[in-house]
Amino acid sequence: xxxxxxxxxxxxxxxxxxxxxxxxxxxxxxxxxxxxxxxxxxxxxxxxxxxxxxxxxxxxxxxxxxxxxxxxxxxxxxxxxxxxxxxxxxxxxxxxxxxxxxxxxxxxxxxxxxxxxxxxxxxxxxxxxxxxxxxxxxxxxxxxxxxxxxxxxxxxxxxxxxxxxxxxxxxxxxxxxxxxxxxxxxxxxxxxxxxxxxxxxxxxxxxxxxxxxxxxxxxxxxxxxxxxxxxxxxxxxxxxxxxxxxxxxxxxxxxxxxxxxxxxxxxxxxxxxxxxxxxxxxxxxxxxxxxxxxxxxxxxxxxxxxxxxxxxxxxxxxxxxxxxxxxxxxxxxxxxxxxxxxxxxxxxxxxx
Length: 352
What we know:
50% of the residues lie in helices and 16% in strands. By secondary structure, the protein is of the alpha/beta class.
């Protein structure tokens, strides 16, 4: 077999770039947790000493960290005076924890994937599943943080209004189920926006439910938000007018059973809001950075959890709209339509 040296060097460069990005993720997490990005945000040009003093860190470590940021394009270096600068755009991604573009917390997810590598190797060899609750704890906070700001920026402003007739009902007052709610950020966001409605968050993971209750209390919405431990196939029948699945249906071992239960407890004029990772219907449609991100997470997290549940189906995080529609058709729904989309999510409305 002959080797094309140009192609070899080209791919090697690509692989080294990815390796450097992996190292860079550790640097991003350190910069966030040590307050280095916040120290730089809006401050213009700073020396390494100034950054270190503002963040309360040792200058020699900070200098090396700053050089890694400059080398990776995460900060500017000005050689004429040896200063460093965080641009406004970089600050939105790295320093503003309320920005929809904020990324540092998401690095907890690959950290958990590395920590659980031995468990994943075993699943590959045995074919068995690995439940959400069996992963390292950094997974839960990382996933919640990764999606939270996107929900804050889009859920009330764009996604709910894209659903036919839903906002008006929320304003008047209805019962809403948030299935697979995790830390409950989506539940709390809706509760703050629609005080006349009552919200029920369900998740099988006890630690996430406990955190969700804390978040709801801190947000002052505990009077109209109730979190309980339950699965997608057994959460209580309350005749909900809106049932939501935020980035979780593809994690379920029996998505058809989950959708069927939703149909049984959905009011006759109610809607299901399905928020799923953005994906095309064919593998070739997803050969891009977002697809790579989701396929990788799906390999170790989504498919692994689905295979741990009764039913053993595994849609995967890149199922695509066609497969999702088939799930709801088999569950007895007659209406299924894409209402909105973002680079990271598909937003779909289903009705009886």
